[in-house]
Design goal:
Layout lengths: L6 E12 L7 E7 L2 E9 L6 E9 L8 E10 L4 E19 L2 E10 L1 H6 L6 E3 L5 H11 L17 E3 L5 H11 L6 E2 L5 E2 L13 E4 L11 E4 L7 E8 L2 E9 L8 H4 L4 E6 L7 H20 L2 E8 L9 E6 L4 E15 L2 E11 L6 E7 L1
Parallel strand pairs: 12-18, 14-16
Antiparallel strand pairs: 1-2, 1-5, 3-4, 3-19, 4-7, 5-6, 6-7, 8-9, 10-11, 13-17, 14-15, 15-21, 17-20, 18-19, 19-20
Length: 372
């Protein structure tokens, strides 16, 4: 395909049968003709991962008992054809208007993670010690009728975990995945759920690099910002188990660091409880907690840059490594996609992408800890 030339674009809205009793089977039916456009938001930080809205106008209401899958299609200047699903969604109807024989309105789009979010534990849910955390999360999704990417990891919970009555299944899954070093659940474009290890912001080669010049497909306005004012300079962690409490704190008191407590004159802190620790003895567990506090401080203090730009569709998704080589502005940048806003028109698609990058913090941390 020729991505840098002329495109003849179109958007298709396909009806997909929701068959929760047949895990892994989301059968495509006919194309909807009533949808006229809208927007989709893909995000690595939102709980459902993908959302949006569509406008419609036609002789009847869309069937909200099924799903809608949005496809992007284009033909390039040499006649090559391309099609890609942008997402598969539940459609929630919003206040339709009836005018003679026509009904119009909009639907709110929510990813298939809605199923896990709306379902809740009807009694306390126990995960026994030594349970494989990732396998259990995948089993929960499969029991809800949602196919997964077949994730695997050796990690097993070090002690039993009990989730309270009323906890939603998405929270259960994400908690189990987090304990194994995985990112939260995110939806794929075909209506499944992806469970994958966390990635660093810049460790992989970009799957797409946007460049200026005669073949550029990005708009010339690129926004570059950072969150230096909000970076933490202290992390406080606590672990409770078997009648004892461990604590560990890590501080950035490096006079050479502009984010340090010395430079700022005040503390910007992160406080969290830790539920899992490696180690056979309390001394080993305390050492592990101190190391976790130090590592967390390094992550929190690392400078985060945000870049936003607009472009036509290319095969990117949240968490995709991406690069920008904007020589005209002296910008050479590498990061990972965090958000994509897709604007769906009658004749095509425009994309506004936001990506993030974290740099090495490069400071000396002071760490302390103890027990009570």
């Amino acid at each position: 395909m020729i991505w840098t030339g002329y495109r003849e674009e179109s958007i298709a809205y396909r009806r997909v049968r929701w068959a929760p009793g047949r895990a892994g089977h989301l059968d495509e039916l006919e194309d909807y003709g009533m949808f006229t456009g809208g927007s989709i938001e893909l995000s690595s930080s939102s709980e459902l991962g993908a959302s949006g809205s569509l406008s419609f106008s036609g002789a009847a209401l869309p069937d909200t008992s099924d799903l809608v899958r949005v496809y992007y299609r284009f033909a390039d200047e040499e006649g090559g054809a391309y099609e890609e699903a942008l997402g598969t969604f539940f459609a929630v109807l919003s206040d339709p208007t009836h005018d003679m024989g026509t009904v119009s309105g909009s639907v709110t789009l929510q990813s298939v993670l809605r199923v896990l979010k709306k379902g809740r534990c009807r009694m306390p849910y126990n995960v026994p010690r030594y349970t494989n955390a990732v396998e259990r999360a995948a089993d929960i999704a499969a029991d809800a009728g949602i196919p997964t990417n077949g994730p695997a990891a050796p990690y097993r919970v070090g002690r039993g975990v009990c989730f309270d009555f009323g906890t939603d299944w998405l929270e259960v899954c994400n908690s189990l995945l987090s304990s194994a070093g995985f990112a939260p659940c995110r939806p794929d474009a075909m209506g499944g759920v992806v469970m994958a290890p966390r990635g660093s912001a810049t460790q992989d080669a970009p799957v797409w690099t946007f460049e200026d010049g005669p073949l550029s497909i990005m708009k010339p306005e690129v926004v570059l910002a950072n969150d230096a004012a909000d970076t933490a300079n202290a992390v406080h962690l606590r672990y409770e188990g078997e009648g004892r409490t461990l604590w560990a704190s890590a501080y950035n008191d490096d006079p050479a660091s502009p984010a340090s407590r010395l430079a700022r004159g005040y503390e910007v802190s992160v406080c969290e409880k830790v539920t899992e620790l490696a180690g056979a003895t309390w001394g080993e567990k305390l050492s592990a907690l101190k190391e976790e506090a130090r590592a967390r401080l390094v992550r929190e203090t690392a400078g985060t840059e945000y870049v936003e730009w607009e472009h036509p569709w290319v095969p990117l998704r949240p968490e995709s490594p991406v690069g920008i080589e904007y020589r005209g502005s002296g910008l050479s940048w590498l990061g990972r996609v965090s958000n994509m806003r897709l604007s769906l028109g009658g004749d095509g698609l425009t994309v506004k992408t936001r990506a993030v990058s974290q740099a090495d913090a490069g400071f000396r941390a002071t760490v302390e800890g103890g027990a009570w």
